Amino acid sequence: MASEPIPLLSVRGLSTDFIGGGNAAHALEDVSFEVYPGQTLGLVGESGCGKTTTLMSIMRLLPSSGRITSGELLFTERDGRVSDLLALSETEMRRYRWREMAIIFQGAMNALNPVMRVGDQICEPICHHEALDKKAAEARVDRLLDLVGIAKSRKNQYPHQYSGGMRQRAMIAMALACEPGLLFADEPTTALDVMIQAQVLELLKSIQQELGLAIVLVTHDLGVVAEVCQDVVVMYGGKVAEYGPIDAVYNHPQHPYTQLLLQAFPDLNRPGETLASIPGSPPRLEALPPGCRFEPRCPFSLQVCKERDPALRKITSESGIGIESGKPGRPVLFETTHLAACHRIEGD
Q1: C-alpha span between 7 and 147 (Å, rounded)
Q2: What number of other Cβ atoms are within 10 A of residue 272's Cβ?
Q3: What does 52-86 look like in DSSP terms, one character per residue?
Q4: 172: exposed, middle or buried (C-beta count within 10 Å: 0-12, 13-18, 19+)?
Q5: Whole-angstrom Cα distance, residue 333 to residue 98?
Q6: pLDDT digits (tens, 9 = 90+) for 116-153
Q7: Within 13 A of 88's CA, how many CA atoms are on the CB side?
Q8: Is the pLDDT of residue 14 over 90?
Q9: What are phi and psi of 27, to 5 degrees?
């Protein structure tokens, strides 16, 4: 068991702006977290808080109006070499997409090309990124379909011949086509019924166990995060409000936003309890408040909250266990820290 694990991905001080009409919308500011081999990290928060922008920034797939203004994205390759993804050219970055990291896009169920056979779509990134002949590529497609629970006899069918759950499974197979070590899943259960959602989540967990994948899961569903994640990042207004082990954040939330999110989520241990609501709306990213971004909606607001943005502050540290990338079943110990950004924690 490793005593000093190296993060697979270390996001440090990531800031991203969108420029339009002469105004800058500060979509992300000073976002930092780490993902370890075999770990599942959850990104949660309201719509517009920066979850998807975080993934797009890491993959460097921002639209033309987006630009990363500062930060580091340190990725550890399989040979142990560490590279800053922001220092790579676009040509170099293409080598990382699919082979080192891949993404299941939001609304992926409808992202398949309707006029291409599903097997051909899964085969396309394999043929583009790896020096495999057609027979070897087809054999990998068969293995991938089997991995996600789709009969290989259906690989020559078109997307419209698949159910919603099967299309989502096909998208997962496509994301795994070049055997990446890190998988980003952006709302992978959107538009699926509850039973199919559970099947997709169980599939991701079993694939992670078998392949030793690290997963970053974006979702609004706090129950999903509690079920499959070891660490969670709570985002608000493009910043990290709270970050830490799932047990610490859920059982001892420190940021008022996290507390209200949890109170707004149904809990079977509190039957009949009225769910909380968060008054107001998230801040406009082109007109952010000068102090804490949650202050206008916070029931515990202090004067200092209106004047100064709080920094992330350490609450506790503890150890977690993941699975070594590429070595299923081999445990890796990693250190996780519970952090929150609130002036009340600072004692002000």
Answers
A1: 27
A2: 4
A3: HHHHHHHHT---TTEEEEEEEEEEE-TTS-EEEGG
A4: buried
A5: 26
A6: 999 999 999 999 888 888 899 999 999 999 999 999 99
A7: 19
A8: yes
A9: -70, -35
Report how far residue 270's alpha carbon sits from residue 22's, in angstroms, rounded to the nearest whole number. 49
Instruction: Measure the CA–CA gap between 188 and 218, rounded to whole angstroms.
Output: 8
DSSP state of 152: G
Q: Is 204 helix (H, G, I), strand (E, B) or coil?
A: helix
Strand, coil or helix: 2 = coil
Residue 297 corresponds to which amino acid?
Answer: R
pLDDT digits (tens, 9 = 90+) for 265-303: 877 676 777 777 888 889 988 889 889 999 999 999 999
Answer yes or no: pTM beyond 0.70: yes
- Domain extents in the chain: 9-100+180-346, 111-179
The fold adopted by the segment(s) 9-100+180-346 is Rossmann fold (3.40.50)
Q: Identify the CA nearest to 167 among candidates 107, 96, 247.
A: 107
